[in-house]
Amino acid sequence: MPTVLVVDDTLFMRVAISNMFNEWGYDVVGNAVNGKEAVAKYRELQPDLVTMDVTMPVMNGIAAVKEIISEFPNAKIIMITALGQQKLILDAIESGAKDFITKPFEPEKLKAAADLLIGQQC
Fold first, then answer.
1. Do the beta carbons of residue 81 and residue 54 sit within 8 Å?
2. What is the pTM (predicted TM-score) of this model?
């Protein structure tokens, strides 16, 4: 069962995304509320996949992606961004994120991106 780390500063989004992954047969092994916590949890858990919010306190998602990718170049990270953050999306992809989803999103889009990165059939 593929493991997932869900990173978002909003409790509602962490719970919603975690519930989706649990329904889809993934194992949500951790949650983080900011980029700094995400980096620490990634080191500890080394999940198969990360969903990473862009705008968060303490350390934003772009900085967290850069730090995770510098240590774990094969990390699979999907950025989750708000509408109108195209520049940040480009920064995220250049920093090593593998895909992005724009909020609000259809669960099927997140599942398709996750399954593709993990290598499961959609």
1. yes
2. 0.91
